[in-house]
Amino acid sequence: MSVNQVSQQRLIIIDPGLRELGGHHPATVLAIADAFTNNEQVSIELLCHQDCPTAFTENLNSKVKATHHFTTDFYQYFYQLPSYQELQQYCSRLALEYISAIRLCLSTNKKDQKIVFWCHTLNWQHAKALALALDVLKQNHGAEYVAKITIIVGLMYSPFDSTQSIKRKMHYELAFRHLAKHDSIKFFATDYELQIIYKKLLNIEVDIQPCLLLGDERCNAEEGKNNTASSKNHGNTNCRGKCILYTGDAKLNKGFASLPLITEHLAKSKPNYDFFIQYSISNESKLLRDIAKELERVTEKNKNVTIENKFIEHNDLMGLFKSSDTIFFNYDSEIYKLQSSGVLWLAAYHGLSVISMTKNWIERESARLNLEYRYSDDVNGIVKCLDASRHCNKQKIYNSHNSTEDTLSYKKKLFEPIGDWVKKIFL
């Protein structure tokens, strides 16, 4: 008998943004699938975009049943504001797809079987579309039809931007207040700052969602038992250091354009360091591909630089962070002023030192998590930061004596294994 037949609970990931192999969408799905591999009480289902590579969904473990459902471009208006007419058409089209997705899943639900839908990433347009979908379902099928389900909504994006746009805040407030009227919705913020913002915006309690990229990784967030400084050669200058210079989607606002020059300088200046770069290019950008060619040339000339120019699996991602001791960020100061990064949380969980060339959310979150953080806006300064990080005893980073009660509470929620967290949702 299959897992789906014996499971009493269904966890359904609704992810129209899962279209290409890059970024947090596929990484999140892989982490969730990994978290529930040996859990016979919960079945995992995925509704993704129709363009999502079948090679990806077919290679998910047998625990996950995948359906290529959505056709709407999830990020069509992420960086630009649509006209009123375009907005109505976009939201109506996405709402219809949400409606059919929920109907499809409920049509196969057994009597008294618990079902939880998970929308881990919603912008305001998506929130508006989901609210419209629930309105229609309630009208057509009655309040009980919607009341019997739970929908987890991840609050990942800030209602504010660097310009403090009143229009943007208004869109977020109207869309998410509309969605909040449905009792089936449970909101979870992805970080501390968003928790505060959405509490005020919606006038409701909002809890913290665990870092989804970690999956079911387990550690003692207060004592940092996952972090063994000696195994990472930290504080021992006779051993080779390992620094992650880049990981994730190749994006200009994450400093990808300057990566070849920075990499070459660091590789020559720090021969006792191994530098690792992982990226994926999910579009046909000639600029990004030209930068990638430059990186390849740098790698050919420097044996202490390794490049993975593809999306990497969850276990490989965890292995990368476990084997590293330092991570480098060059994220745009304005774009990431109010935007979070799951990469930093992976670094925090594994006790890596943080070096940044820009000042933004990375700096503030590093302080909140009591991380070893260094800043320099020039590459020679980065070399000095690497020298300094070699002499730090990383075990102190998670020491409870160095953290406030609020910091420890935040870490505990942020690094809670997904499996444990989802169990609470089903209660």
Helicity range: 40-55%
Please give the CATH class of the largest domain: Alpha Beta
Q: In order across it, which strands form the biggest sheet? A: 3-2-1-4-5-6-7
H/I helix tally: 16
- Taken as a percent bin, the fraction of beta residues is 15-25%
**Biggest sheet features:** 7 strands, parallel
End-to-end gap: 25 Å
Radius of gyration: 22 Å
When the domains are counted, the total is 2
Q: SS-based structural class?
A: alpha/beta
The overall average pLDDT, rounded, is 88
What is the number of beta strands? Answer: 13
Give the structure's gist in a few sentences.
With about 425 residues, this protein is α/β, with parallel strands linked by helices. The protein is built from 16 helices and 13 strands.
Explain this structure to me?
By secondary structure, the chain is α/β, with parallel strands linked by helices. It has 16 helices and 13 strands. The chain has helices spanning 3-6, 24-35, 54-58, 84-107, 124-141, 143-147, 166-180, 192-202, 259-269, 286-301, 314-322, 342-349, 361-368, 379-389, 405-414, 418-426, and strands spanning 9-15, 42-49, 64-70, 114-119, 150-155, 185-189, 207-208, 241-249, 273-280, 305-308, 326-329, 353-356, 373-375. It has a seven-stranded parallel sheet, sandwiched between helices. 43% of the residues are buried.
Topology:
Layout: H1 3-6, E1 9-15, H2 24-35, E2 42-49, H3 54-58, E3 64-70, H4 84-107, E4 114-119, H5 124-141, H6 143-147, E5 150-155, H7 166-180, E6 185-189, H8 192-202, E7 207-208, E8 241-249, H9 259-269, E9 273-280, H10 286-301, E10 305-308, H11 314-322, E11 326-329, H12 342-349, E12 353-356, H13 361-368, E13 373-375, H14 379-389, H15 405-414, H16 418-426
Parallel strand pairs: 1-2, 1-4, 2-3, 4-5, 5-6, 6-7, 8-9, 8-11, 9-10, 11-12, 12-13
Helix pairs in contact: 4-5, 5-7, 9-10, 9-14
